[in-house]
From TrEMBL:
Signal peptide from the UniProt entry: 1-19
InterPro entries associated with the record: Peptidase_S8/S53_dom (IPR000209), Peptidase_S8/S53_dom_sf (IPR036852), S53_propep (IPR015366), Sedolisin_dom (IPR030400), Tripeptidyl-peptidase_I (IPR050819)
Cofactor, how bound (note): Binds 1 Ca(2+) ion per subunit.
Protein name: tripeptidyl-peptidase II
Keywords, comma-separated and alphabetical: Calcium, Glycoprotein, Hydrolase, Metal-binding, Protease, Secreted, Serine protease, Signal, Virulence, Zymogen
SUPFAM superfamilies in the cross-refs: Protease propeptides/inhibitors, Subtilisin-like
Cofactor(s) this protein requires: Ca(2+)
Entry's Gene Ontology BP terms: proteolysis
MF terms (GO), sorted A to Z: metal ion binding; serine-type endopeptidase activity; tripeptidyl-peptidase activity
Subcellular location, record wording: Secreted, Extracellular space
Species assigned in the record: Phellinidium pouzarii
Catalytic activity, as annotated: Release of an N-terminal tripeptide from a polypeptide
Length: 569
C-alpha cells in the first residue's frame, strides 16, 4: 500500500464564520488527518500568545519561471548559461495586482498591516494573537510537543481561507507543517589526534589509508580534484548553518595546518548572519556539522571564497522558518554565491505539500539566477532523514524538490553505496523530464522489489553522491571520523565551485542548476558510476545500487578532470 494521504487539500466545504468585524466565507485550505507520529498535543494555545504568521501569495507566472530555469540550465538549449537577473526573476514571482489587492483587503478588514519578507513580495508576515488567528483562518492553534526533542510548537491541524483568496493565497505558515529538527553527522570513531597529512600534492594513486580515513588528499586523488588555488574572486561557495551549529576557527586552522599545509595560512571563511545568527568561539561551542561543512569546503575547494551563513533562531517558527529566511535572504542579494550547500533537511511528510512547493519554487528562482543548490539526501537509507521504524519508505525534503541537486553517500576507495544514504521517490513532486529515462531504466531493472513501498511516479533522488563515511574532521582540538550525507554535499559542492572558477576564468557563466547537465550523457559519463551496495531501512534491504542512476548513489561521484572536459574546458 502506498502511503495514505496525510494531507487533504482544498476539501470542498464552506464554513461560514460569524466573526467581527467582517463576515467572510471561509473554505478549508489545508488539513492534516492526524497529529504526526512523534508529536503529542499538550493543549490549546493561550489566546494571547502572539503568532508570527506568514502568507505565501501565488506567483504571477510560475510556469514561466520553470521554463526559464530549464532554458538556462539545459546544455543544448539556445539560452544555456544565460542566467536571469534578480529583477527578471522577480517579474515571474511577484503576485499579480489582483492577488495583492485581495490579500491586502482581507488583512485590512482585520486591521492588520503585513510586511513583505521576500524581494518579489510573494511572502507577507504579520503578528496576531492566537485568538485572532483562530478567527481569521477558522483554525485551532494548539501546543504540540515533539516527544524526542521536547521542542514545543504552536500548530493547527487545519485552517481555512476566505473563498475569494483561492487562487491568490498559496498557504499560511506555520499551520499544518510539523517539522522536526534534522540531522547532525554521526561520530564513528573515538577521539584521536589529527594526523599530519600525507604530502598533499595530488596523489598519483589513492593511498590505502583512505579506506579507513577520508581526508582532503584522499578526495583529491579519488576525484581528480586539483590542489591548485582557484583564481576568481567573484566566485563564491555558500555553506548554510542552522541549529546553533558554529564553526570553530581554531579547529579550521588545525585542520588546514595538518591536512592542507599547502594552503595559505590565512585561509578562512566569511561570516554572514540572519535571524540573529552568530558564530561564537567559546570552548565547547564548535558544532560537528558546521566544522565538517566548512572544513570540507575550504579544505577541498582550494581558494574559492567561502561564506558560512549562520541562521539564528529568532524566526520564532522552528527550523522551517530558517529555511524560508535563508532562501529569501539569498534571493534579496545582488550577487548570491554560485554554489550553496546545505546538510540539513526534513522528512517530506512533515512539511505541507503546498509549503514544500513554495520552497522548491524559491530554489528554482535562485537556480535561474545561476546558483547550484546542493542538499544532503539524509542519513536513514530508505527510512528518511534518520533511521526510524517505518512500514513504507520515507522520502526527504528538500531533496525531493526537482529544482536542486540531492547528494547521497558512498564509502570506501572502491566506492560502494553507504548504507545510510537516503534515497527514494517523492510523494509530492512528479518525475522531472531530465531524469525520466534514467529512472525508468532503473525501475524496469528493479522489477517487483519493494513494490508498494514507494511512489513510482515521484521525483527520484539523490542525483549524485560523494564520500560519506570515515571522514576526518578537526573538532575541539582533536580529530574525529564522522559519517553522513552531511559529508557528501560539501564535497560535491566544492567540486562544482572549482569548476565554476575555471568557467569564470574562461569568461563563461557558472554552472547554475546542475541536473539537466548531470543527467545528459556527457554529464553522466563524467561521473564515477557506483554499482554496489544498498540503503536498507523499514525492514527491507532498501534499493540496490546498479549500473547507471540509482536511488542510493544517484548518477555517481565526481571526477573533476572529466567534468572539466564535459563542460568544454
Ligand atoms: C613533503 O613535501 C615536502 C615539501 O614539498 C618535502 O620536503 C617532503 O620530503 C615531502 N614528504 C614526503 C613524505 O614525501
Ligand atoms: C505519488 O506521487 C505523485 C507525484 O508524482 C503524487 O501526486 C501522488 O499523490 C503520490 N501518491 C501518494 C499515494 O502519495
Amino acid at each position: 500500500m502506498l502511503s495514505k494521504l496525510k494531507f487533504l487539500v482544498f476539501a470542498s466545504f464552506i464554513a461560514a464564520v460569524s466573526a467581527n468585524p467582517v463576515v467572510r466565507n471561509l473554505i478549508l485550505h489545508e488539513q492534516r488527518e492526524s497529529i504526526p507520529k512523534g508529536f503529542v498535543k499538550i493543549g490549546s494555545a493561550s489566546e494571547e500568545q502572539v503568532l508570527n504568521l506568514r502568507l505565501s501569495l501565488v506567483s504571477s507566472d510560475a510556469p514561466g519561471l520553470e521554463n526559464a530555469l530549464y532554458a538556462v540550465s539545459t546544455p543544448d538549449s539556445a539560452r544555456y548559461g544565460q542566467h536571469l537577473t534578480k529583477e527578471e526573476v522577480e517579474e515571474f514571482v511577484k503576485p499579480s495586482q489582483d492577488s495583492a489587492t485581495k490579500v491586502n483587503a482581507f488583512l485590512a478588514s482585520h486591521n492588520i498591516q503585513a510586511k513583505s519578507i521576500s524581494p518579489a513580495g510573494d511572502w507577507l508576515a504579520f503578528s496576531v494573537p492566537v485568538s485572532k488567528a483562530n478567527e481569521m483562518f477558522n483554525a485551532d492553534f494548539s501546543v504540540f510537543k515533539h516527544q524526542e526533542s521536547g521542542t514545543q510548537y504552536v500548530r493547527t491541524l487545519s485552517y481555512s481561507i476566505p473563498t475569494d483568496l483561492q487562487g491568490h493565497l498559496n498557504l499560511v505558515h506555520p499551520t499544518v507543517t510539523f517539522e522536526r529538527p534534522f540531522s547532525a553527522p554521526v561520530v564513528s570513531s573515538p577521539r584521536m589526534s589529527i594526523p599530519k597529512a600525507q604530502n598533499v600534492t595530488t596523489l598519483a594513486s589513492v593511498p590505502s589509508s583512505c579506506d579507513s580515513e577520508i581526508t582532503p588528499a584522499c578526495l583529491q586523488a579519488l576525484y581528480n580534484i586539483p590542489d591548485t588555488l582557484a583564481t576568481q574572486s567573484s566566485n563564491g561557495l555558500g555553506v548554510a548553518g542552522f541549529l546553533e551549529q558554529f564553526v570553530s576557527e581554531d579547529d579550521l586552522e588545525l585542520f588546514l595546518e595538518s591536512l592542507r599545509p599547502d594552503l595559505p595560512s590565512s585561509t578562512t571563511f566569511t561570516l554572514q548572519t540572519l535571524d540573529d545568527g552568530s558564530n561564537p568561539q567559546g570552548a565547547g561551542q564548535a558544532g560537528l556539522e558546521a566544522n565538517l561543512d566548512i572544513q570540507y569546503t575550504i579544505g577541498v575547494a582550494s581558494g574559492v571564497p567561502t561564506t558560512f551563513i549562520s541562521v539564528g533562531d529568532t524566526n520564532s517558527d522552528g527550523q522551517l522558518g530558517g529555511f524560508l529566511d535563508i532562501i529569501n535572504f539569498l534571493l534579496s542579494e545582488d550577487n548570491p554565491p554560485f554554489v550553496l550547500t546545505t546538510s540539513y533537511g526534513f522528512n517530506e511528510e512533515d512539511i505541507s505539500p503546498s509549503l514544500a512547493s513554495v520552497l522548491c519554487n524559491a530554489y528554482a528562482q535562485l537556480g535561474t539566477r545561476g546558483t547550484s543548490i546542493l542538499f544532503a539526501s539524509g542519513d536513514g537509507g530508505v527510512s528518511g532523514s534518520q533511521s526510524q521504524d517505518c512500514t513504507e519508505f520515507v522520502p526527504t525534503f528538500p531533496s525531493s524538490c526537482p529544482f536542486l541537486t540531492s547528494v547521497g553517500a558512498t564509502a570506501g576507495i572502491t566506492e560502494t553505496a553507504a548504507d545510510l544514504s537516503a534515497g527514494g521517490f517523492s510523494n509530492v513532486f512528479g518525475i522531472p523530464s531530465y531524469q525520466a529515462s534514467a529512472v525508468s531504466s532503473y525501475l524496469s531493472e528493479l522489477g517487483s522489489t519493494n513494490d508498494g513501498l514507494f511512489n513510482t511516479t515521484g521525483r527520484a533522488y539523490p542525483d549524485v553522491s560523494a564520500q560519506g563515511e570515515n571522514v576526518l574532521i578537526a573538532i575541539n582540538d582533536g580529530g574525529e571520523l564522522v559519517q553522513g550525507t552531511s559529508c557528501s554535499s560539501p564535497i560535491f559542492a566544492s567540486v562544482i565551485a572549482l569548476l565554476n572558477d575555471r568557467l569564470i576564468a574562461a569568461g563563461k557563466s557558472p554552472l547554475g542548476f546542475l541536473n539537466p547537465f548531470l543527467y545528459s550523457s556527457v554529464g553522466a559519463n563524467a561521473l564515477n558510476d557506483v554499482t554496489s551496495g544498498s540503503n536498507p531501512g523499514c525492514g527491507t534491504n532498501g534499493f540496490p545500487a546498479t549500473t547507471g542512476w540509482d536511488p542510493v548513489t544517484g548518477l555517481g561521484t565526481p571526477d573533476f578532470a572529466k567534468l572539466l572536459t564535459a563542460i568544454g574546458l
